[in-house]
Design goal:
The protein is of the alpha+beta class and 111 residues long. It has 2 helices and 5 strands; from the N terminus they run H-E-E-E-E-H-E. Strands 1, 2, 3, 4 and 5 form a 5-stranded mixed beta sheet that branches. The radius of gyration is 16 Å and the shape is elongated. The two termini are 16 Å apart.
Length: 111
């Protein structure tokens, strides 16, 4: 998607892209034996692969050309829509592309 956006809009496009990805420390069923980040990591679900995992989630906003504009690292259980206000507020772009996980009532005009 990003490659096509760059092709059609050029490097000065006013488009940002938000997405998230899991940062696994272990699979869900091994979380009780994992000692790394025990007090701050938790269980989340990767809906793309339909699997639960123990760790964190990275939420990243990039320009259409792939430059990272903003990011946030959260517990794995934090839903994308809860991180959206922070990422959107600091975006220099007027147009933002995001998957359904980032869409909330107040963000519809920009996403």
């Amino acid at each position: 998607m990003r490659r096509r956006l760059v092709e059609i809009s050029g490097p000065g496009a006013d488009i940002a892209i938000i997405d998230s990805f899991p940062m696994l420390l272990s699979v869900s069923h091994r979380r009780y034996t994992t000692k790394v980040f025990k007090d701050i990591a938790d269980v989340g679900k990767n809906t793309t692969k339909n699997v639960k995992f123990y760790g964190f989630k990275a939420h990243v906003m990039t320009s259409a050309t792939g430059i990272v504009l903003n990011y946030s690292i959260t517990k794995a259980s934090i839903h994308d829509v809860r991180v959206a206000p922070e990422l959107i507020a600091e975006s220099p772009c007027k147009n933002i592309l995001a998957d359904m996980g980032y869409i909330g009532e107040g963000y519809m005009p920009r996403i």
